[in-house]
């Protein structure tokens, strides 16, 4: 009898359908974007299922750095900060040499574990109807957003909450220089109505007419191409934003994960990433008759960011932004409103007062000093001391402006 039962159990088990292995992809991209890639992959390989984990970069950073993360196979994101964090935590698998491609687009510290499969660009998303109502010209570049007519009509997000906004700010700092870049961005900040928690929300709020313009990556504006109310313009010197992919160290489906990366790098995969639904530029050249060819080549011609510098001063840039702008936006806007009113009344630019509001307490030498940046990041006591000094500095600058305007 016992033998009969054992035989029945054995037969029952072998007759059960074998559960297909899932390829789990953790990504910071929206479901609309990544669902399309998953559908195309499964149309080609019906037996190979994909499960997507769509999270914010900060959420992924916490989740994937845990030692007991066993379900995730691949990480797909445009955030170099996320991949560097995972690399530092020894959570990324070394890729086969055949997949270690596009090195010039990948931070040097990540070339053995991470590759680029597509890219995007940065620019300004704007609401045409609202601009027309406000009698404002469409924005074209950074300088156009500094116009006082945009006061309280611009949306941005914080670098500490958005890698997209962080890279756009760093792009400005590297292209115009540390001092001039901050001066320009702090001037632009005078027109900010709200600092959004996520860069995706910037495009969404502009689309809804809650702001006239916002800083955005091109990907977030894809689904508005057919909306005549809105528009998007690339920064004239926009750098590219690569789409990175890597395999998690704890992956149980390494072969399928490698095949998925190969698929995205293949001719078919590159056509898929260039589709309207995925909204990226392929890493291979588009046909010359493609409507996106000229913009793709323009983006590719722009020198890349210095990733080493970007990553080294990540903490510095995030903290300076929050202390200078996020935590005192209301006061800043009050000070700038008084400056604008005074300039309009006197028909004279108040250069000295503007200079006070756009000066920062960290010079260019410090911003590139590896010892200073490392200590700021790793020595909590030192960081707190520096941040307190910065907070006092920015508050005193605002107070100086308010006091001088009252005296005039």
Strand-helix topology:
Blueprint: H1 2-15, E1 22-27, H2 31-44, E2 49-54, H3 57-64, E3 74-77, H4 80-88, E4 114-127, H5 128-133, H6 142-145, E5 154-157, H7 163-176, H8 178-189, E6 192-196, H9 199-207, E7 213-217, E8 230-234, E9 240-247, H10 254-265, H11 267-273, E10 281-282, H12 293-301, H13 307-312, H14 314-324, H15 329-346, H16 351-357, H17 364-367, H18 370-378, H19 380-407
CATH architecture of the domain at 16-120 and 240-301: 3-Layer(aba) Sandwich
Give unreliable regions as ranges. Answer: 4-20
CATH topology of the domain at 16-120 and 240-301: D-Maltodextrin-Binding Protein, domain 2
Estimate the strand proportion: 5-15%
The coarse silhouette is: globular
Query: What is the H-and-E element order?
Result: HEHEHEHEHHEHHEHEEEHHEHHHHHHHH
Signal peptide: 1-20
Protein name: ABC transporter substrate-binding protein
Keywords: Signal
Organism: Exercitatus varius
């Amino acid at each position: 009898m016992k033998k009969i039962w054992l035989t029945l159990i054995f037969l029952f088990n072998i007759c059960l359908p074998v559960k297909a292995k899932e390829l789990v992809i953790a990504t910071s991209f929206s479901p609309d974007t990544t669902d399309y890639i998953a559908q195309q992959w499964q149309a080609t390989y019906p037996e190979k299922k994909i499960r997507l984990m769509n999270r914010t970069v900060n959420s992924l950073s916490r989740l994937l750095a845990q030692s007991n993360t066993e379900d995730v196979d691949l990480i797909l994101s445009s955030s170099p900060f996320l991949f560097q964090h995972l690399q530092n935590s020894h959570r990324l698998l070394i890729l086969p040499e055949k997949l270690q491609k596009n090195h010039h687009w990948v931070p040097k510290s990540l070339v053995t574990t991470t590759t680029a499969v597509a890219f995007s660009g940065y620019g300004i998303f704007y609401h045409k109807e609202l601009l027309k109502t406000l009698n404002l010209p469409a924005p074209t570049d950074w300088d156009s957003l500094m116009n006082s007519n945009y006061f309280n009509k611009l949306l941005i997000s914080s670098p500490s909450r958005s890698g997209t906004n962080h890279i756009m700010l760093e792009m400005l700092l590297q292209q115009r220089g540390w001092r001039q870049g901050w001066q320009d961005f702090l001037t632009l900040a005078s027109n900010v109505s709200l600092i959004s928690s996520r860069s995706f929300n910037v495009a969404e709020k502009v689309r809804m007419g809650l702001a006239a313009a916002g800083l955005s990556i091109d990907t977030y504006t894809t689904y508005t191409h057919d909306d005549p109310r809105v528009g998007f313009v690339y920064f004239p010197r926009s750098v590219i934003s690569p789409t990175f992919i890597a395999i998690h160290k704890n992956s149980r489906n390494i072969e399928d994960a490698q095949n998925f990366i190969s698929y995205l790098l293949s001719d078919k995969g590159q056509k898929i990433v260039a589709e309207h639904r995925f909204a990226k530029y392929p890493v291979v050249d588009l046909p010359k008759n493609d409507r996106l060819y000229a913009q793709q080549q323009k983006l590719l011609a722009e020198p890349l960011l210095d990733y080493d510098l970007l990553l080294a001063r990540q903490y510095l840039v995030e903290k300076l932004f929050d202390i200078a702008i996020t935590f005192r936006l209301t006061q800043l806007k009050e000070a700038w409103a008084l400056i604008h009113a005074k300039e309009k009344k006197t028909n004279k630019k108040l250069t000295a007062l503007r200079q006070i509001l756009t000066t920062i307490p960290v010079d260019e030498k410090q911003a590139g000093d590896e010892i200073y940046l490392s200590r700021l990041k790793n020595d909590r006591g030192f960081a707190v001391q520096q941040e307190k000094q910065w907070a006092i500095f920015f508050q005193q600058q605002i107070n100086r402006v308010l006091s001088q305007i009252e005296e005039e």
